[in-house]
Every structure is written in structure tokens, then in C-alpha cells.
Amino acid sequence: MRISDFKAMTFDVYGTLIDWEAGLLGELKPWAAKRGLKLGDGAILEAFAQIESPVQAESPRMLYRDVLAETHRRLAKAWGVAADEAAARGFGASIARWPAFPDSAAALGYLKDHFTLAALSNVDDASIQPSLDKLGRPFHHVFTAQQIGSYKPDRRNFEYAIAKLGLAGIAKKDILHVAQSLFHDHVPAQALGMTSAWIDRRAGKAGAGATAPLKNPPKVQFRFESMAALAAAHRAEAGG
Fold first, then answer.
1. Mind listing the domains of the chain with CATH numbers?
2. Catalytic site residues?
3. What is the pTM of this model?
4. What local confidence, expressed as pLDDT, does residue 107 receive?
């Protein structure tokens, strides 16, 4: 199996292309420190993961900026500090401040000349716009949780993307799903018979970060530690 065997790529955005863990820590770490909480990066990300996914499951039609705000409120409660509504709302708006990984825009710029590219993101339509700007707006299609009415790892999100690309004449077998999160992306993608490429952004780091840990990780067909490596693999297949 080769990267060049596919016609389209669907991408997780936050964690794969946008450094959401750096973004989360940039918001939560100073807020916690100002309240006297001595929390390491791993503890902050683990607490976030334990709260965010249940909020999404409880309210699948809630806009992602509101999911973040509610997660912030519950984190304050879990950490035993007073809720801060202004901070919660600010956290919900923080997506615009999250940085792109340094290699994302260039890799996507290369890949869009060879594949149909689609974003499949757990976010709302408005919040994703600044991130698309940072990535150079490479996508032919952008599918969001707001459009679908559910959050990954719900299989409906992947079925939606498969159906939409099918209308464009691209079969499921011709789609490669590219993502960092095993929990949010690779488990449901594999369950639906999709081929997937793991961008292992946490290679060498302990724990699962801002996503739920898995006792039995799914088997993926491709693994790279960066988007640059994925683009390089295709470039090598193409002979240059």
C-alpha cells in the first residue's frame, strides 16, 4: 500500500495540524497558576481530556467554543477553585490563538496539488476560520461538528465525510484519513473500514495528552511523526 494509491485525504485539524495541546496549555496553565494551583502539563492535559469528551457526548449539538467554556467551568470545580465566567468564555474563544505546527502549512500546500483534501474537525464553523488562515486554506472541503451534529469519535462524523466525498466521485477506499488522536479518529475510522495514517505528534512523550488513553490501540496502515514526513513519503513515491 502506498500513499499515492489514494485520491483524497481527510484530516483531523486540532492535534494533527494545529498544536492544540500547546494552545490549551497556553490558556490553562497561567490561569491555574494565578489561582495557586501547581499543576504539571501532563496533569492539566489529562484533566482536560477527562472532562471535554463527556461534555461533547452530553451535548453533541453544542458549539465547540461553548464546549470549551463548559469544560473550563468543570475544570475549575474539579480543581477546587471559583468558577470564572469571563475566563471560561475567553477559553472558548482561544481557538483563534492556538498555533499551527510549523510543518503543517507547507505539507498541506504540497499535498493539495496531488489529492482532494478535506478537514474533518471537532469544531464549529466560525472557530475554525482563523486556523484555516494559519494553514493556508488548503482544503477543498471543510466538515465540522457543527454541520454534522455530533463530535468524533462518533462514527456519524466519518460517515458524513465519506458520503460528501462520495458525491464528488471519491469512494471510501480512495480516502486516507490522517490524524493524531487514536481515540477520536483512528478507532472510528478503522471501525468503518477506512485506511488511516497516524501523525504521531506525541512520539516520545509520556501519556495520552489531551485525549483519552486506549488499552488496545488500533492498527494503523501508516505512521509518521510529522506532516512533513507524510509529504516526504509521497514525494519519494513520486520520484522526487
1. 3-19+98-237 (3.40.50.1000), 26-97 (1.10.150.750)
2. 12
3. 0.95
4. 98
